[in-house]
Amino acid sequence: MQFIRLVVVEVVEVAIVWLFTFLFLEAAAQGYNHWTIQYGARSLLLGGNVVAGARDFSAFYYNPGSSAFIPHSHISIGATGYQLMNIYYNDGAGKGINFKTQPFFQIPVMLGGVQKIGSNPKFSLTLGYFLMQRQSFNFVSSGRKNGQKDIIPEPNDVPLFLEPYFADIYLRAQRSELWGGLAFALNVGPNFGIGICPTIAHRNVLEEVSDDLSLFRNNGTTGIYSRFINFDYYHTRLFLKIGAELKLPKVAIGLTTSLPAWHILGGGETRGKFTVSNLYPALVDFTKSDLKTNLSIRYQTGLSIAIGVEYPKKRAINYFCLQWFNRIPTYNIANTTLDLLPPAESSLSQSLTENFPYFENHRHVINIGYGREMELSENFSFIVSLRTDFSSVSPGQAQRFRYQFGAWDLLHSTLGFSIDKAHSNLSMGITGAFGYTATYSATQLTDPVAYFLYSQRSKASVVIWGLGLVVCYTQISPIRKKKNLQE
What we know:
This protein is mainly β and 487 residues long. It has helices spanning 2-24, 41-45, 59-62, 395-400, 448-454, and strands at residues 74-90, 99-100, 109-117, 123-149, 163-188, 192-216, 222-247, 252-258, 262-277, 286-295, 304-313, 316-325, 328-332, 359-362, 365-375, 380-389, 410-421, 424-440, 459-476. It has a single domain, classed as Porin (Beta Barrel), CATH 2.40.160.
C-alpha cells in the first residue's frame, strides 16, 4: 500500500509540472533527424552516448536494460533552453533571395520517475515512467520580389512590354511528437540487466505553402496567379524498446533495439486553391478548390539497433555509441491528392500538388557519438560530448519535394558539469549544433516566368547553427529505513 501511494504521488507531481511547463513552452528540434534532442542529467551532457552506463530515468529511452542498475528511486525534470537557433535557406527563393527563421527560445522537456522494488543486488525489479517531447520542428518564412519582366508574350505586331510584377511565397512547416512510456527492468545477478519499455508516440504535422504573382499588363489591367495548399494530420502509434546491459570488470556493454511501430489511430485533412486570372495567353483563366477530410493517416517508423560501451579509465569514463536506423521504402502517409490541375489547354506544366509530401520514405542512417566524463572531485564532474545527426530523408526525396524542410545533416556538441549531492543531481552546460545541406530553391522569385509557368528550380543551400543552455535536475528519493522492532 505504501508503494502504491508513493507511485501515485510521484506521478501526480510529474503530471502537474509537465502540464504547467507545456502551457508556456513549445519544444523545438528538427523534423527528419533521429538524434537532435537528448534527455537526463548526465545523459544529456554526454550527448546521449549512454546505451551503456545510463544511471537515471533516461535509461528507459536510451536502453531499458541499463535501468536495472539505477541505484535509487527518484524523479527528474530536464530541459534544454535554446536561446539561439538560426536557419538560413540561402537562395531559397532564387538567386540572392534567402529564407531565414528568427531566433527563438524554446525548451524540450523530459519528466519521469523511477521506483526500485527490492534491494537484493542479485535480483531486483525497476519500474519507471516518463513523458517527453521527442520531436518538434517549426519553420516559418517568406520571400518577396518585385521588378519588371516580359511575362505575358505580346503578338508579333505589338511592341515588347515589360510587366511590372510583385511575387511572394509563404512557407510553414510544423511537426511535433509527444512520447509517454512505462518501463520494466530486471537485474539478473549483479552484472546483467534486461528491460522493456512500451511507448506511445503521438504526432502532429502541419505543412502549408502559398505563392502569388500580381502583374500590371500593358492594357491597364492586373493579372493574378495564386496557389495555396495545406496538409494537417495527427497520428498515434505504439512501439517497444528492448535492451540489455552487461557489466564486465573493465567495461560495460549495452545493446538496445526499437521495434517497428504499430499503428493505433490517425486522421487529417488537406485543402487547396488554385487561381489564374487575366494571364492569357500564357495561362487560361480558371479557379479550382478542393478539400479532403477524414483522411486515413498511417505514419511509419522502422527498426533501429544501438550498441554502446562505457569504459572507465583512471578518473574519467569514456562513452562510445553507434546506432543504426533501418530504411523505410516509400509509403503513403495519406492516400490522397487534391484536384487542382489546370485545364488541358493551359501551358502550365505541373501543379503544386505534385510537389507536396503526401508520402514519405527514410534512408538507412548510422549515427556515432563519443562522450567523456572527468571526475574533478568526489561530487563534481566535467563532461564533453560530440555526435552526428544525419537526416533520415533520402536525397532523392528532398529534391523531389519542393517544400521539404528539416532535411539536413547536423553535428552536435555539449560542454558542461554535473554536481552530485546525497539526494539530488544538477547538470548544467551549453550545447551547440551546426549543419549544412546542398538543396534546391523552394521557388524562383527572381524569374517568375520560370517558376510560375514552368516550375524551374535553381541550386540553393541550407546553413543551420544553434547555441543552447542545458539544465537538468534530478531529485533522488531518500531510502526509507525500517523501524527497529525493539523500539
